[in-house]
Design a protein that fits this description.
The protein has 444 residues and is of the alpha/beta class. It has 2 domains: 118 residues, P-loop containing nucleotide triphosphate hydrolases (Rossmann fold, 3-Layer(aba) Sandwich), CATH 3.40.50.300; 307 residues, no CATH class. It is built from 17 helices and 14 strands. The strands form 3 sheets. A 7-stranded mixed sheet has the order 7-12-13-11-10-9-8, with helices on both faces. Strand 12 and strand 13 form a beta hairpin. The protein starts with a helix and ends with a helix.
Length: 444
């Protein structure tokens, strides 16, 4: 597990991410002692001690878990100091679902002492809904020294139909939702994302920076953002969309402050642009592509259910893209990589570029399924590869069309991979079965 690996090399690890994604439950499986900052019985005492004697809160068997540490930002410097004093790895785990509202209380970045992990809702591999027969890490290893002629075989089988895919898009990767039986508790599973959105609008966004915000305006923003999923929608367009149903005039500055607050609590996670060396001087679009941390946030914001997506394949395609980006981010980070989006002035666009720290990269087009869409994705990938200046950078380790509906993972004659998202995983280790599920959620 990534958390265990980081604890072996740093004195403390910060696990941050959206509420309900399993940060505390995952960390508890490693921690030897726990401090719950939000415990109603001790919250006042905890805050007082954090202010006058923070070292007292750090006493306990290690690694010691400090849950929702951002309630008392002074704990950050106290942890950093204690790590220096003890001079040992694996001392503390900090978990938080928001960036501290008052950053002025933090005087040291924690560099060299505190490692950061961004935890997201569960991927299909973690929930056991991906067979894991195609490893992203293995694709990079096979293509590491390739010269454009890699013919390594891949194989995998996926029996996911469009109705179930629509369901898991709307359900999302929230551990409590994943634990629900899709046969008998589907309504309970789908309710989790709706409740999450309500909590964000009514209270969580205001706690991000201690600024009171209009809950209805937050809901309008989240709906507008959902309508722009997978695009580079301009801020002016979002403002205009929100203003259509707002009595008071809205400014770009106001909307930006709302978006910034949503990012602080890990609701929104846009995809940055990829900037490769090209053969031509084509201008590359640098705007971020808009995504939610989990696709279910977008469908819940719009009030869409699985049936709505099945009846509107175009809309479903955008939210399926958000699901794939969520999973690819987790798989990429497990391989020391990041996920980007590419678009240039000519309109050439690639949904996902997974770029590793060593310079290797893979090009991925995301398509809901069907021969026509797969062929379109393959042609896009070939056009993009031809535009890259391979005299200045590597050839892609692989080119992949990532699909939602499709029975098999295979390599086409032109070398392009076609892989259902229900076959993908991060690396060659693990099974993607119940054992992995238990690591990330408490279903008892």
């Amino acid at each position: 597990m990534l958390l265990q690996k980081r604890l072996r090399s740093k004195g403390a690890v910060l696990v941050e991410g959206a509420k309900w994604c399993g940060k505390t439950t995952t960390s508890m499986q490693i921690a030897k002692s726990i401090l719950y900052m939000q415990d109603p019985a001790t919250v006042r005492l905890n805050l007082e001690l954090a202010d006058i004697n923070p070292g007292r809160l750090l006493k306990g068997e290690t690694p010691r878990l400090i849950d929702e540490w951002q309630m008392a930002p002074k704990l950050w410097d106290a942890v950093r100091f204690e790590v220096d004093r003890r001079d040992e790895f694996g001392q503390f785990i900090l978990t938080g679902s928001a960036v501290p509202a008052d950053m002025s209380q933090i005087f040291h970045s924690g560099t060299g002492r505190i490692s950061r992990i961004l935890m997201r809702p569960m991927t299909l591999f973690e929930s056991g809904e991906s067979s894991g027969e195609v490893s992203l890490g293995e694709l990079f290893r096979n293509g590491e020294d390739r010269s454009g002629t890699d013919t390594s075989d891949i194989s995998g089988e996926c029996d996911m139909d469009i109705e179930y895919l629509a369901y898991i898009i709307c359900r999302g990767g929230w551990p409590r939702a994943v634990c629900c039986n899709p046969e008998t508790e589907k309504d309970i599973a789908l309710q989790q994302a709706l409740d999450y959105c309500d909590a964000v609008a009514s209270s969580d966004i205001s706690r991000a920076d201690n600024v009171d915000r209009n809950p209805e305006r937050v809901r309008r923003l989240m709906r507008s953002y959902a309508r722009g999923i997978g695009s580079q929608t301009k801020m002016t367009s979002i403002v205009a969309d929100m203003s259509a149903n707002d009595v008071d005039p809205l400014s770009i500055i106001t909307v930006k402050s709302y978006i910034c607050a949503l990012k602080k609590i890990f609701v929104i996670e846009d995809s940055p642009s990829w900037n490769p060396n090209l053969r031509s001087k084509t201008a590359i679009r640098t705007s971020d592509t808009r995504y939610y941390t989990d696709p279910s946030i977008g469908t819940a914001a719009l009030g869409l259910g699985p049936g709505d997506l099945v009846n509107d394949p175009e809309t479903m395609g955008f939210f399926f893209e958000n699901l794939c980006i969520r999973d690819l981010r987790v798989y990429a980070e497990a391989n020391d990589g990041s996920v980007y989006h590419y678009r240039d002035k000519s309109g050439l666009e690639c949904d996902a570029v997974v770029h590793l720290r060593n310079g290797s990269y893979g090009l991925i087009e995301i398509k809901l399924g069907g021969d026509r869409l797969v062929e379109e994705g393959a042609e896009t990938l070939k056009r993009l590869e031809k535009s890259i200046d391979t005299g200045k950078m590597k050839l892609p380790s692989f080119k992949m069309v990532l699909t939602g509906i499709g029975p098999y993972a295979y390599r086409r004659k032109d070398g392009i991979l076609v892989v259902p998202v229900g076959c993908l995983k991060n690396w060659v280790y693990g099974t993607g079965t119940g054992d992995d599920l238990k690591k990330f959620s408490d279903c008892s």
